[in-house]
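Step 1: inspect the first sequence and its tokens.
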Amino acid sequence: MINNLSVVMVAVLAVHVSFAQKKHREHSAHQHGAGKMAIAFDGLSGKIDLRVASESIIGFEHKPKTETEKNQQQAALDLLEKNISDMIQFAPTAKCQITKDSISVVYEEDDANKKEKLQSQHSETLASFSVLCQKSLQGTRLTFNVQKVFPKIRDLDVDLLIGSKQTSLEAKKNGDSIEL
């Protein structure tokens, strides 16, 4: 039997996969310093999906060419994984545990000539996490401190679905929060 969270996350992940599979996007959809997050819960189990321009996470968007760039990219992705619980803080009373499902960088493919492609390449950092809480989130606060870890992310659009409650938040500074 498929639970409600599975149905919700299939929809969220379909958008995630659709984005990852696109070969070309309009540049206007790609904004440095901005990101999108979807959080969905059914009972005590949840999912978090994040999509951010790689420049805001890694510091550049092209495929890493040097060993230094490869190390910089890996360090940024590791930082995201290690600090997700600081970036998204569930109420301590809920005793939530966040674990990584996947983190990847998706590069935009461009039909332009190779030299122009290398100079104008865009990429997105995609991350998916599972959340398991020991107590209900109802009546608690969810606080966002994304800029403490990644100061270049100045605008994070968050869509939340927790039980039957659906809401959204624009997290623009550390400490922005929402009551669940």
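Step 2: inspect the second sequence and its tokens, then contrast the two.
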Amino acid sequence: MPKITSHGKLFRDWEALLGACEKNVSALTGVEPLRTEMETFLAQARELKLQQENFSGQKKAATQNLGQLLEQGIEVSRRLRAFVISRIGTKTELGKMFGLVPTGRKARKKSKTPVAKPPVVPQATAAASPAEPPDPAQTKGGEG
């Protein structure tokens, strides 16, 4: 999954992941510990983001704490997605709800312009092709 650099996008991604887990709890037996951990990270990250925006003097410390927490949360989201893959598989369309791209056989795209093959040239015999180019003196108007 591509790295998300905006905090708002990251928070929405985590919320969508948690929502998909809630909707598919029957297909994801054993997901509760990871889901709870993800919810905890989301709540803590939101709190630290608010602190970061409110405190001017402690902004650097809050930013560092937020960065560390986001990295840990990203790791938990990876583990949660890996768990989802282990339960539902990689080829199901259900994976889209969790931000996963279904794998499988991709349709082959036809090219818009056909690739032209070079024409097959038969090998020339010695009699059919001139051995030397014509003499320029002979082609100048009949002197000779």
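Step 3: confirm your contrast with the notes below.
The radius of gyration is 33 Å. Helices lie at 7-23, 32-54, 59-88.
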